[in-house]
Amino acid sequence: MLDVRNLEVVYDDVMLVLRGVSLTVPKGAIVALLGANGAGKSTLLRALSGLLDVHDGEITKGSITLNGEPIHHLRPAQVVQKGVSQVMEGRRILGELTVEENLRVGAHTRARQIDANLERVYGLFPVLKGRRRGVAGYLSGGEQQMLAVGRALMASPEVLLLDEPSLGLAPALVGQIRELIVEINKQGTTVLLVEQNATMALSIASHGYVMETGKIVMDKPAADLLSDEDIKEFYLGLG
Ligand code: ATP
């Protein structure tokens, strides 16, 4: 279980961006984190991945624990080693390397499992297997997104953090990504899904959180969020 308690994050020593965020991702679940641009979703993911430093951000209060063990003081590579892997928004793949080289880069911390993980990723994304010796920069947007997810899975994460996986994808591809998240979860990986596409996220999540200006303003079973007309209109833009 991944647990965030009363987390405060400040950028540039002064700008308070997370104002006491608490959130729980139970083992085996898919949890959706929703909210408008600027609400603080990416900041929370950076905090979870140990990536605040590079953005001049820091945790000033609260804690992040994985199965009871604090992880908020760890460096990014240590967080991955503990079992939390993030798929970056914007598909930050290495365009000049081949597809398989990109996947192997993701595996650097768990060398023994590389072959099994490659099989898992190629099983989930057969299109990547077909193009494994091809240069990643030539993949389509949807394929690059798959490669970004595949790369995160190469670290055998217990918890996968997904930042806007449907961003910029055509509706048909959004459906594919949705099915893949369900499949990855069925294979035993816990998922925290950050999405602007609230309908997609809530359709596969068991629980949803809505963030607004650095705070959690809604915390409910996904089905309740989807069926409440007021919430849909005011918080999710689905009215
Ligand atoms: P988006 O979907 O646009 O990424 P978000 O919900 O993920 O939005 P954040 O990117 O976490 O929101 O941004 C939350 C707030 O923190 C915003 O007001 C933003 O301007 C500010 N912010 C983000 N990164 C930094 C930074 N490196 N330095 C200072 N302020 C930042």
From TrEMBL:
<dbReference type="Pfam" id="PF00005">
    <property type="entry name" value="ABC_tran"/>
</dbReference>
<feature type="domain" description="ABC transporter">
    <location>
        <begin position="2"/>
        <end position="238"/>
    </location>
</feature>
<comment type="similarity">
    <text>Belongs to the ABC transporter superfamily.</text>
</comment>
<dbReference type="InterPro" id="IPR052156">
    <property type="entry name" value="BCAA_Transport_ATP-bd_LivF"/>
</dbReference>
<keyword id="KW-0813">Transport</keyword>
<dbReference type="InterPro" id="IPR017871">
    <property type="entry name" value="ABC_transporter-like_CS"/>
</dbReference>
<keyword id="KW-0029">Amino-acid transport</keyword>
<dbReference type="GO" id="GO:0005524">
    <property type="term" value="F:ATP binding"/>
</dbReference>
<dbReference type="InterPro" id="IPR003439">
    <property type="entry name" value="ABC_transporter-like_ATP-bd"/>
</dbReference>
<keyword id="KW-0547">Nucleotide-binding</keyword>
<dbReference type="InterPro" id="IPR027417">
    <property type="entry name" value="P-loop_NTPase"/>
</dbReference>
<dbReference type="GO" id="GO:0016887">
    <property type="term" value="F:ATP hydrolysis activity"/>
</dbReference>
<dbReference type="GO" id="GO:0015807">
    <property type="term" value="P:L-amino acid transport"/>
</dbReference>
<dbReference type="InterPro" id="IPR003593">
    <property type="entry name" value="AAA+_ATPase"/>
</dbReference>
<dbReference type="GO" id="GO:0015658">
    <property type="term" value="F:branched-chain amino acid transmembrane transporter activity"/>
</dbReference>
<keyword id="KW-0067">ATP-binding</keyword>
<protein>
    <submittedName>
        <fullName>Branched-chain amino acid transport system ATP-binding protein</fullName>
    </submittedName>
</protein>
